[in-house]
Amino acid sequence: MTLSSTPGPTPDHAQPAPSRGGRLRRSFDRHWYAWAMVLPTVVVLAVLIGFPLVQGIWQSFTDLNESNQRSEVCTKTLGGGETCKPNPDAAKFVGLDNYVDVVTGERGRFWLWFTNTVVWTFACVSFHYLLGLGLAVMLNRPMRGRGLYRVLLILPWAVPGFVAAFAWRFLFNENFGLFNSLLTTVGLDPVDWFSHRWTSLFTAITTNIWMGVPFMMVAILGGLQSINADLYEAAEMDGASAWQRFRHITLPGLRPISATVILLGTIWTFNMFPVIFFVTGGQPAGESEILVTGAFRAAFEGVRNYSLAATYGVLILSLLLVFAATYRRALRSQGEVW
Amino acid sequence: MSTSTSSSVTFSGATRIYPGSDRPAVDALDLHIEAGEFLVLVGPSGCGKSTSLRMLAGLEEVDAGQILIGDRDVTHLRPKDRDIAMVFQNYALYPHMTVAENMGFALKIAGVDKATVRKQVEEAAAILDLADYLDRKPKALSGGQRQRVAMGRAIVRQPSVFCMDEPLSNLDAKLRVSTRTQIASLQRRLGTTTVYVTHDQVEAMTMGDRVAVLKDGLLQQVDTPLGLYEKPANAFVAGFIGSPAMNLGTFSVVDGHARIGDGLVPLPRSTVEAVGAAGQVQVGFRPEALLPASEGDPGSFAVQALVVEELGSDAFLYGDLVGDDLRADHVVVRLPPRGVPQKGETVWFTVEPGGLHAFDVETGAALPTH
Amino acid sequence: MADPTLAQDAGAHTRAATPRPRRTRSPLASVALHGTLGLAVLVALFPIVWVVLSSLKPGYAIQSSEITLFVEPSFDNYVHVLTETSFPRWFLNSAVVAAFTMVIGITMSASAGYAMSRFNFPGRRGLMWVFLVTQMFPVAILIVPIYTIMANLGLIDTKLSLIIAYCTVAVPFCAWMMRGYFDTIPKELDEAAALDGLGPFATFYRVVLPLARPGLAVTAFYTFLTAWGEVAYAIAFIQTDENLTLGAGLQQFVPRFNPQWDSLTAGAVLITVPAALVFFFAQKHLVAGLTAGGTKG
Ligand SMILES: Nc1ncnc2c1ncn2[C@@H]1O[C@H](COP(=O)(O)OP(=O)(O)O)[C@@H](O)[C@H]1O
Ligand SMILES: [Mg+2]
After folding, report:
1. What is the pLDDT of residues A22-45, one digit of tens each?
2. Less CB within 10 Å around the terminal CB: N or C of chain C?
3. A294 vs A272, B364, C143, CA distance in Å?
4. In terms of domains, do B69 and B168 share one?
5. Could you say which of B76, B81, B109 has the minimum Cβ distance to residue A12?
6. What is the ipTM of this complex?
């Protein structure tokens, strides 16, 4: 390699000799910094999510729990050493027993929780989306006080989840909550919100809708602003009414962002732990649990049952994977490349 | 401003195949550019001009072949080690830096001291008439000014090669013409080797010392502008260079003549020999290579005028060949501005001596015409 | 792409696309619009306002079924929480944890997002899917295995354990969002920087990052919120009172049968204030930052 006497930055010493090392070497030279940039994230995710996931899949086929997790029982000998022999009660492989137990309702109330989860997710995500869409469309119009409206409407997003849960639980309190006070003031009977499955779920759903609308609204607002304004003017000249413009320009223009936020929203809501946990606490008698909170209680209250927790984890993950795959296919069949 | 040491550039079988594509975007490009030369790469959109330039700049991988700057093999060097400056189509000015910071950025990175950077930036700004804008952000500049900042950023560095990828395409027509001459004269002043990409053959013809014509990733011809114009290597170059384009059509060869419409235009002996048994030839003549003639003149053919454009200094006649052997879409003829024929009139022309080009029907390669 | 300004202002589309002012809006429509938005604002604010009002009341008045706005308003509850409980300590812990989560989370998600936006490296597509799948595995169920890992690393009862755990929660979404934002910054800028002599890392932090402010603001907001006031991991990993963070610490005010509503309301308000501050700094950028991430799958 001849170095010419050209001015400018001096060649980097780390420069690989060309044509030596071949393709593999070049591929590494070209991609090492990309890998270096994703490496921290990948390592952390692999250790804290990937590893437990793989471990969980394995554990879900065993009967591992807090009391049988040791594989050896050790006793101190007089000389200060230790002798260990295999633990006769050690966790063992049980095949699909856990799954069978869960799905047949032998342990936990899978179908009740599953129904609750579906109702909960569907209600929350549809209201998030519809309210978010409505508010975003209104906020996207030029008007006085628009900036202020926007800030105030996004504000609930900044309220930490358990504070929001606490605030709503406070409002729904059966004895002194604002809602029951209002009901008594207008002469109605107070409602025992947490004594019925559906009113209990209703409080949680209300809370979660309140918390989740700002995210949707912001995302959709951005989507609206990325729609070319010329389209609206063209449509107006074609004589399209306001509704027709919304139907034929706004909604299609929002498709990419909608597809994304609905998928994410569904996944997040499905696994939303703190709202149910803090607002209803499963009252009455666990009837308002969703899968994650139910599983958490079933597996971790009392003797910690790792294998049961893992079984639920794998089931939840599978349900969501199936959902995501179906969703993606549905979008694709409508020509959306996601 | 001191001139930099400029280097020659050599593409040697340089090939780029984009992942997921089986056809090379640039196919075994062989091209040598002398130190200090202004070379224009021209071709229709998608022919691989930008890819070639980006391979030289190190922004695109080279899948086969080599690229040399001077006698240094840079094929696998990183962009920053090639001593190249580039002007992008969209200028790619750093939006968060002022004009002065944009222009001096490369020097700053190279560790040049502040005073020197400032001095060089000011010199470049003076040349480009940007002195008043040094503290503005690119957002606050007009299109033409941004273009000049992009130029300034390149020249401040005094690189050994300039790469420019359609740097004028975002300017309005008038500014484009004036900037064209400014760039060309600046390059001559600095003497820096320049590779300039454009799809506009007028730019290519007016700016380049030499012009390289690309099509579908294949180099068609490299020559001076006049060389390309007068001796196109094939029918593609002939049709691409020149405005309005050369008239090209495929005609049958009868008795050493091409049957053009109803007329019989004599072909040189060498052409006839080259055509051989094929019996057909692709014939080209430029709009200005036709001479008015009368019906019955030897070698004349008839054109029926469809549209006549009068531009003041010239007039252009667009017409159809009269006769059955029609293979050319339209015939364009440049006429003196006075006494132009009327629409619908039939006019006779002959091809002026030496004005006839002949190309192989199959390959498009130029055939001898002497 | 004929706009030569490139990313002068990556949020520029925001302005361009706003529909022109309607020439006139009928008074009725105007009232309906402002009425609806006003109602929405009311719903958005009233739980917060109600908690704030309650926090100013003495304990007995909070637990009264009469509706009153003010009863002997005072800051007694705040004084109590701030001076007679470990609240200030928890607050400080939370601030440290949230700040580090924010810094580390931004660093990780910005660099991963940049790599995914710019480099076509082997494994890129798979990574996008991995990010999505990590969102599907329920956190609640991950707590125990993560606890075991933390225990093996000797990190139980440390702030670091929380910071790492919060990063796993926030980074996949943020990285994916940052990637979308980086996609809106023209690649030519990177190329110009490469020719100007910057390596990939220097290009990233000297040229691209300064232009990604809206994306970074959203990431900062999101990572902060993830860490600030989180409860489940905090309860699981932290064992000593002096290391507790707010979310976990406040649970002490909620014994099973006798919640201390006066301390709780004051604590809730105090927790929300810093989050609201971060929100006000980030809110201007939220729309531009989040959308870029969203529109690109
Ligand atoms: N990044 C890319 N990936 C795949 N194909 C590309 C890419 N860039 C350009 N191409 C293809 O390579 C060919 C040449 O492109 P280019 O060099 O940009 O042409 P132009 O002459 O217009 O500058 C085109 O067919 C184009 O579609
Ligand atoms: Mg191009």
Report:
1. 667 777 777 888 888 989 999 988
2. N
3. 12, 77, 15
4. yes
5. B81
6. 0.85
